Amino acid sequence: MQAYGREREFIDAGQRASPPKSNAGVRNHPVNVKVLRLSRPRLPPIDLTNHDSIVHPSALLSVPSYFGSVYIGERFCCVVSANNMHAEKQLQVSVSAQVVLPSEQTVVLLHDSDFSSTLDPMKSTQKVLEYEAREPGAHVLNITVTYWSESEGEQNKAEKISFRKVYQFQVTPGLSVRTKLSPAPKGAFTIEAQIENVSESTMTLETINYLPAGGWTAKPLPGSTQLSLLARDVYQMAFLVMRDEAEKDPQPIGGGRLSLSWRREPLGEDGWLTTGPLKT
Could you tell me which of 97, 85, 87 has the C-alpha nearest to residue 10? Predict the structure, then answer.
């Protein structure tokens, strides 16, 4: 079971994309909506040679005081909470959410039919949203809230009202992958992979696999076992790629891909990515 730290208000750079300059004419909605990111706790470095500094792990855990970063291949995870601020009235509330990518494509995270509820006075409901970051750049999270309120002067007639909140978060590369393809004896090839930690966090590589094109097999060559990378550290690994004798019509050798997974810091976010086809 995945354990998260306490929730942090979603206040990354940008916050609301277009905040109003004045409150004049702005409607006060009886529905309050908050978007909070779920954060894993952080464990600071420990000097194991100093016995006085070794305490129970729970005393060392902390949650970042800022929104934090999202790296390509990691999941952006947040909670959307809708609260009925009326002291006496029930409200029918629905919420939808979508992310607009840097490529201007839109990914729907939540349909309003999936998050619709009748809220008693001063009660709330919430939903967890997850999105796998695959593009670098600014991402825009649109939260649309719809509720039904009695029309003024018209009893038993509900008015449908919608409003939107807009937030922005940045996605950056955490790992840089470079590969080199070289011929080897007996029609085989070697794939050399160089993985650099371009983030500001410590990255622990958990799996590194080469996925060969059809008609080929691959096995890792002996190399370094140091898989914990500090910022700007580089890890190198090689694979031997050979023909699969059972396949008579192999695909081009350059169709293979490199797949890897990692975890940030001892207890941090995990992620994975697969490269595009290798260039020959």
Answer: 97
